[in-house]
Write a structure and sequence with these properties.
Layout lengths: L4 H17 L6 H15 L3 H15 L7 E4 L7 H4 L6 H12 L4 H17 L9 E8 L6 H15 L3 E6 L3 H16 L27 E2 L9 H7 L10 E5 L3 H15 L7 E10 L17 H11 L1 E10 L3 H4 L6 H4 L9 E4 L9 H7 L5 E3 L22 H19 L7 E6 L4 H25 L4 H4 L3 H13 L7 H6 L1 H6 L2 E5 L18 E6 L12 E6 L6 H6 L15 E4 L1 H26 L4 H9 L4 H9 L5 E6 L5 E3 L2 E3 L3 H17 L7 E3 L2 E8 L1 H9 L11 H11 L6 E7 L10 E3 L5 E3 L2 E3 L8 E3 L18 H12 L13 H4 L6 E10 L13 E7 L10 E6 H8 L15
Parallel strand pairs: 2-7, 2-8, 3-5, 3-6, 4-5, 6-7, 9-14, 10-12, 10-13, 11-12, 13-14, 20-25, 23-25
Antiparallel strand pairs: 1-8, 15-27, 16-26, 17-24, 18-19, 19-20, 21-22, 25-26
């Protein structure tokens, strides 16, 4: 901060008062206008004024939509009539806490509405007889799911639920973190003092009203155990206030709790407990699902959760997850079994929305034209993606060293902005082996000592006196590379380097480490750490103040990939300096998976409008092309073929893998295709458009003939010609009879052998694509980002008015004034004719762009299908284990820690 702190705080106070009484909308412009009225009076410079503007934007401009719901039609609503008898004691305390913590009023109102909606989808806890409800809440990674279900706990307790069990992940650190959140938001006392007379510490909601005290059977230090439960001395059937347990998703814990409940709490002559149970399953797609990976029977944790629910006459189960694919695939071969006693959300599915200030996957990988991504391309010799458990790390890749320097700079920038006591975290997720993680931590520690010693040794010298010193030269270069735009005054940053670097430490967070992330203990000064880990850093665990992430993992599995994204969340006052390091392959997978998840969320919204039920949603999602990934992992053995039914309406498919020995034949087939398409046009010609040439309104017949001779790579399953052709033939008399064709082209090429002449004479210059690291032998993965088509390609063929309407619809709920890179899926809803996309590529080596993978243009194609107005006939694909192993992920890429979970 360059301005006087007292003057800054006075300006902040006066602007807060003015904005609080302002009746018109508080826009970004009006906030800055009010700051501008008083800034010079208090002598606050422009940089600090802008920081203050961002602060008020986070208060007044953030909004959140209510979300979507799919529910069973025969459920009888109970909450509206019951509310007159419900005293919102627990919810009112939690609302006050959230308000005092700075939650925006708009967001708090939306959260109130959505938690009430979820409560209403549970059963009335006062209803007599036997009942059970099963539901799922689809949130976003690091988006506030814990806050949401804490709100639900409060409201459920107010309504009459007597026992609340939260199953919070498979590791102690996550369970402890969740316990603290529940203590703070619901219990009002620090559970660490459980059973210790005279040591009770009031926290969170307890500071507003402690007249009612929930019973706690677990603490931050201790998971459920029988001795502690017996010492509490409360019989479940005799509860006057609700009881809460936060337990680990662990077989021994679940067995112990179940046995204790059976022994001490069921009524005499009955094996069931009559009190109403709310069971919240956090990260419900992880370990809860009955996926035995080739084994028969029920997986242990899944069976124990179901057994726990069956102990109670009255139970509501709510699974919270950001990656619900596995949940939707529960027992996909048998609807009867799927909707029996399994954990499928048969009664309701709720899709949560995020506040507009959420720093999420869609924003990073789909919408931001300048995403905060840095590419790792120097790791293979030092820390390869595939490495053994005893891999010896001799040094750190330069990309990781730069990420560490960036973290030092980020803290310095935050210090210069006055954010002195804020937490700051860096994540390093580069190995599944705990031994390698420890080795990485040691090397990071050594490099931190080197940086800290160099800064300390220079004392009070100016930068001009030390700029040739290696550490300072490297720090300055990293600032030039990454932060010159966001923090343009290097002198301010340089002056904070000593305070920034001196307190940073490196820790390992895994099942073998003694380290913990106790941010609460350091709330006055801020915790400043580089956390190195694997799976335990990938599931639920929140890294406060996370700004720098270094991600080097080899997986394309939807749930694993997205859950590794701990960099999602909220970054008030420092979002602009956050950076993520990952390979281009990983960036491509994140983009692909994010698109699939966003489509899934859109399906929830659409099916809510049509009155669909969870059963319908499950069937719909299982027919999505991206379901191949999930279905394959869950059901395919190493050798056998498996049929998968896929729906292509409102979907985009494309080839991303070609076989070298088929390139020439397929290119000749494509030239014939273009000639036939050109001949079938009505009155158009190839017109120059952004990124290539567009031919409108041609016949589907040449496309059908082309698919009959195209040689597809078995590593590109969605472009298997037969099912695609069948889909088109079945609909060519109604929706797919006439097409548009887009041929991609760049402005110029230096090599005439990489030019294609279209019918009519237009010249196509082949776009360059860098192959993926997976390219081996005859198989060429023609893009390092797993997507060939450029962003915006599906806008081609859409009327301009329709395209603008689609973009306007997409902006609803987004922050105003932010430049958006629109995702292609939004245009499919406006598409009147399907679009064939053709690429002739100049494919270059992933590491050396001057080297070609093949000395001839490589033909690839894609298709954008419009929505359908008639019942869709799903098309059948065949996929197998080798495809899964080669195309999706390393089958051995399962964390060392996770292998012990379901023992």
């Amino acid at each position: 901060m360059n301005s006087d702190k007292g003057a800054y705080e006075e300006l902040k106070a006066i602007v807060h008062t003015v904005l609080a009484i302002q009746t018109e909308p508080r826009t970004a412009e009006s906030i800055r206008e009010q700051i501008g009225r008083f800034r010079e009076i208090y002598g606050v410079d422009e940089g600090d004024a802008e920081a203050l503007a961002r602060h008020f934007e986070s208060i007044y401009q953030v909004t959140m939509e209510i979300g979507s719901v799919i529910a069973d039609r025969d459920f009888e609503p109970w909450l509206p009539s019951a509310k007159v008898h419900i005293e919102p004691f627990y919810w009112n305390r939690y609302r006050l806490l959230l308000n005092d913590k700075g939650m925006n009023g708009n967001v708090l109102s939306s959260m109130d509405a959505v938690t009430e909606r979820i409560l209403g989808l549970l059963e009335n806890p006062l209803k007599e007889g036997h009942w059970d409800r099963r539901g799922m809440v689809i949130g976003h990674v690091q988006s506030g799911k814990t806050a949401n279900y804490t709100g639900l706990i409060c409201k459920a307790a107010d309504a009459g639920y007597k026992l609340i069990i939260v199953i919070a992940g498979i590791h102690n650190n996550l369970r402890s973190q969740t316990q603290f959140r529940v203590d703070e938001g619901f219990v009002g006392r620090d559970s660490s003092a459980l059973g210790k007379k005279g040591q009770e510490r009031v926290i969170g909601v307890g500071n507003y009203d402690l007249s009612r005290k929930p019973v706690t059977f677990t603490s931050r230090e201790s998971d459920f155990n029988v001795a502690t439960a017996n010492n509490v001395g409360v019989h479940i059937n005799a509860l006057l206030e609700p009881a809460v347990l936060v337990i680990k998703k662990n077989p021994k814990t679940l067995e112990s709790l179940t046995n204790w409940l059976k022994a001490h709490n069921s009524l005499q002559g009955s094996d069931r407990i009559p009190v109403p149970l709310l069971l919240i399953d956090d990260e419900a797609d992880n370990a809860s699902i009955n996926i035995s990976y080739g084994k028969d029977g029920v997986s242990k944790i899944n069976g124990l959760i179901r057994g726990l629910l069956n102990l109670f006459d009255k139970s509501s189960y709510v699974g919270y997850t950001a990656t619900p694919f596995a949940n939707i695939f529960i027992d996909p071969e048998s609807d009867d079994e799927m909707f029996g006693q399994e954990l499928f959300p048969r009664n309701f599915i709720v899709g949560l929305e995020t506040p507009t200030n959420y720093f999420g996957p869609a924003k990073i990988f789909l919408e931001d034209p300048n995403p905060p991504l840095c590419t790792i391309d120097d790791n293979e010799e030092i820390l390869p993606l595939k490495h053994k458990i005893d891999h010896d790390l001799s040094s750190l890749p330069e990309s990781l060293r730069e990420a560490i320097r960036a973290f030092v700079l980020v803290r310095a920038i935050r210090l210069s902005r006055g954010q002195k006591s804020e937490h700051n975290s860096m994540l390093v997720n580069a190995s599944r082996f705990t031994r390698v993680q420890e080795n990485i931590r040691n090397k990071i520690h050594d490099y931190l000592i080197e940086i800290q010693s160099a800064i300390r040794a220079q004392g009070m010298k100016s930068f001009e006196e030390v700029e040739t010193t290696p550490i300072f030269s490297e720090l300055h270069q990293t600032w030039l590379n990454l932060y010159q735009k966001d923090s343009p005054n290097w002198t301010d940053v340089y002056e904070q380097l000593h305070e920034s670097a001196s307190v940073i430490s490196a820790v390992t967070i895994n099942s073998n480490s003694s380290s913990s992330l106790d941010y609460e203990q350091h709330k006055k000064t801020g915790l400043n750490i580089i956390a190195v880990g694997g799976f335990s850093l990938s599931r639920g665990l929140t890294l406060e103040g996370l700004s720098i992430s270094y991600f080097l993992r080899n997986t394309a599995m939807y749930d694993t990939l997205m859950q590794m994204g701990r960099w999602f969340g909220y970054r008030p006052g420092y979002e602009d300096v956050c950076r993520i390091w990952m390979s281009e392959d990983a960036q491509g997978w994140f983009e692909h998976v994010t698109e699939a998840i966003e489509e899934l969320r859109e399906e929830v919204r659409t099916m809510e409008r049509t009155g669909a039920e969870p059963r319908d949603f499950g069937l719909k999602v299982r027919s999505h092309p991206s379901s191949l990934m999930v279905t394959a992992r869950n059901r395919i053995g190493k050798g056998r073929l498996m049929p998968v039914k896929i729906g292509l309406a409102n979907k985009f498919i494309e080839t991303s893998v070609v076989d070298k020995n088929e390139v020439e034949q397929n290119r000749k087939a494509s030239e014939r295709l273009l000639i036939d398409l050109y001949a079938s046009r009505i009155d158009s010609d190839f017109e120059a458009v952004s990124g290539g040439y567009l031919l409108r309104d041609v016949s589907s017949s040449p496309i059908e003939q082309f698919l009959g001779i195209y040689k597809n790579s078995d590593a590109s399953p969605l472009t298997q010609p037969d099912p695609v052709k069948n889909h088109i033939v079945d609909r060519n008399k109604s929706e797919l009879g006439r097409w548009d064709v887009f041929v991609a082209s760049v402005k110029a090429t230096q090599d005439p052998s990489f030019q294609i002449t279209l019918p009519g004479g237009s010249i196509v210059n082949c776009p360059i694509r860098r192959s993926s690291d997976r390219t081996i032998g005859n198989k060429i993965y023609v893009s390092s980002k797993n997507r060939v088509a450029s962003r915006g390609v599906e806008r081609n063929g859409i009327d301009e008015i329709d395209a603008l309407d689609a973009e306007a619809d997409f902006r609803v709920g987004k922050q105003s004034g932010v430049v958006i890179n629109y995702p292609d899926r939004i245009y499919r809803t406006k598409r009147k004719r399907p679009l064939l996309v053709i690429y002739y590529l100049d494919v270059r080596d992933n590491k050396d762009v001057s080297v070609r993978e093949i000395d001839t243009p490589v033909f690839t194609w894609g298709m954008s299908f419009p929505e359908t107005t008639i019942k869709e006939n799903l098309v059948g694909y065949m996929v197998n284990g080798p495809w899964l192993q080669q195309y999706l992920t390393d089958e051995e890429d399962v964390d060392e820690e996770l292998e012990k979970v379901d023992e």
